[in-house]
Design brief:
single chain, 191 residues, five-stranded mixed beta sheet, alpha+beta, globular
Length: 191
């Protein structure tokens, strides 16, 4: 541990090693060639709506410096099937904001990619057979991500400028959306 290494039971290591090799092979078979820069970290300056600059750091899983494609690897405990549930998962964790930000960062890093930088997720199932799916944000997902990114930049800029960092108060009731109920086949809702 002092040397920066984590001890692991051999059978667990072997399990994770087999899973990683299987996922890598499946990604290659799906056309997801991860031959670029791993763990790319780029410092950048984006802009709040008021024009003020906001310093940001992007930590990308993988970036191809030849094409400007950012691929973010995601492990899912359930299905990696590219359907509405996966879309809910993406939005639920705010990944659409990442999909909006990373191409901007790549374009700032290399202006030759302006209008050409792209983003996709590579989802991999954590359990055998480790199915994978490549998912790119659609126009509506990009629009959602862009709007939420701008809101986040505006909030971050205001907090930095005013040194006020708002929190959350009280108890809020969280409602299930109609499509969540439909997906779960819930017929009746009671308070």
């Amino acid at each position: 541990i002092a040397a920066g290494k984590l001890p692991m039971v051999r059978r667990k290591f072997d399990h994770f090693d087999r899973a990683a090799k299987t996922i890598r092979r499946r990604l290659d078979d799906a056309g997801c060639k991860l031959n670029g820069v791993w763990q790319a970290v780029i410092l950048c300056e984006l802009h709040a709506s008021n024009g003020n600059t906001v310093k940001c750091k992007a930590k990308m899983d993988h970036m191809d410096p030849m094409t400007g494609l950012v691929t973010d690897l995601k492990k899912v405990g359930g299905s990696a099937k590219p359907d509405r549930k996966l879309g809910n998962y993406i939005v639920g964790l705010g990944y659409q904001i990442q999909a909006a930000m990373y191409p901007l960062v790549v374009e700032q890093w290399n202006p030759a990619f302006i209008g050409r930088a792209a983003f996709e997720w590579a989802f991999a199932e954590s359990e055998f057979p480790h199915a994978v799916s490549r998912v790119a944000p659609s126009g509506s997902m990009r629009a959602l991500g862009n709007a939420q990114l701008q809101q986040a930049l505006d909030t971050w800029e205001e907090c930095l400028r005013t040194d006020r960092w708002p929190g959350y108060e009280g108890v809020t009731r969280i409602e299930a959306t109609p499509w969540m109920l439909e997906d779960a086949r819930v017929d009746e809702v009671t308070e």
